[in-house]
């Protein structure tokens, strides 16, 4: 994503959001932008401001991607954002989204893959997401975990 497109998404952030919510949206835009650059030139961002989930076009099909910063998962607790209504059949039909992807965003070097696999199994992410990735943000590296 070029800087002009990035800026257009930033301008679409609701000014009524709190400072923390705006920061989260900016991170979401940055994650989306960098992921698309690393994954494929055929993956283009359509919307990441309106929902928690990012709407993308991949080879002519709409997909939804949920980015999850590992810092949010550091505490053992229920994580309601994992089970968003966006993965429901109703939302799929309304938006014409064909599949949903889940992306762990990792900033640390050399993460343990076991913790990701345990988390995937514990929270049954495979039931909701057709593809699950580990995105090493600063290494610009993407690994598919399922």
Topology:
Layout: H1 3-11, H2 19-39, E1 43-47, E2 54-58, E3 61-69, H3 89-95, E4 97-106, H4 113-122, E5 131-136, E6 141-144
Parallel strand pairs: 3-4, 4-5
Antiparallel strand pairs: 1-2, 2-3, 5-6
Helical segment count: 4
Measured as a percent range, the helix fraction is 25-40%
H/E element sequence: HHEEEHEHEE
Radius of gyration over all CA atoms, rounded: 15 Å
Strand order of the largest sheet: 1-2-3-4-5-6
Structural category is alpha/beta
Say how many strands there are: 6
Strand percentage, roughly?
25-35%
Distance between the termini: 27 Å
Reported for the largest beta sheet, the result is: 6 strands, mixed
Shape: globular
Round the mean pLDDT to the nearest integer and report it.
82
The poorly predicted ranges are: none
Question: What can you tell me about this protein's structure?
Answer:
β5 and β6 form a beta hairpin. The longest helix is centred in the first third of the chain and has 21 residues. The mean pLDDT is 82. The chain has four helices and six strands; from the N terminus they run ααβββαβαββ. The protein has a six-stranded mixed beta sheet. It has 146 residues and is α/β, with parallel strands linked by helices.
